[in-house]
Design a protein that fits this description.
By secondary structure, the chain is an alpha/beta fold. The chain contains 5 helices and 6 strands. It has a single domain, classed as Rossmann fold (3-Layer(aba) Sandwich). Strands 3-2-4-1-5-6 form a 6-stranded mixed beta sheet, sandwiched between helices. The protein starts with a strand and ends in a 7-residue tail after the last strand.
């Protein structure tokens, strides 16, 4: 079995001095929520084997904060297609993962991430991913190359506001 953790980046700062969308940093709430989600990952004992992230600053900073607080010790891999890519492109990256990886965390953007989560489970469920939300789905596969839309099981959706302080 393979587990996919799908996380939308934490809240970003729309009013920063960043001169492009890809360089927008996290705002105060984002800097608070991302580590909290990492602590929850550690608490639930679902530390990923590998992390893939959009190269956008807000997504990569989210991934780093989650990694730091969850106990993840590997390298976070930046995937260009996670910035403005389609759900098909994201699926291709998942299908190409090394089979030694059993739990993957992917960090990126809406609407792609919400659509991806919906399509992985069956497309007949609406998944609202606010900033820093985390979705868990399981795929009853041994090889990532066998991953298909509509064949995963939805486990849960977790939002920062659902966590106890």
């Amino acid at each position: 079995m393979k587990q996919i953790l799908i996380m939308r980046h934490a809240k970003s700062d729309w009013y920063s001095d960043a001169n492009s969308d890809s360089k927008r940093p996290l705002n105060e709430r984002g800097e608070r929520d991302a580590p909290r989600m990492g602590k929850e990952i550690r608490k639930r004992e679902i530390v990923p084997d590998h992390i893939l992230s959009s190269p956008a600053k807000r997504a990569f900073d989210t991934a780093k904060a989650v990694a730091d607080q969850s106990g993840f010790t590997g390298k976070i891999e930046k995937i260009h297609d996670f910035y403005f890519g389609s759900i098909g492109e994201v699926l291709t990256h998942l299908k190409n993962l090394d089979n030694s990886i059993n739990r993957i965390l992917i960090v990126g953007h809406n609407p792609t991430w919400g659509q991806l989560a919906e399509k992985l489970v069956d497309g007949n469920i609406e998944i609202e991913m606010s900033t820093a939300s985390l979705v868990s789905v399981d795929a009853q596969i041994e090889n990532w190359n066998d991953l298909e839309f509509g064949r995963c099981q939805f486990n849960w959706l977790l939002k920062p506001k659902m966590l106890e302080d």
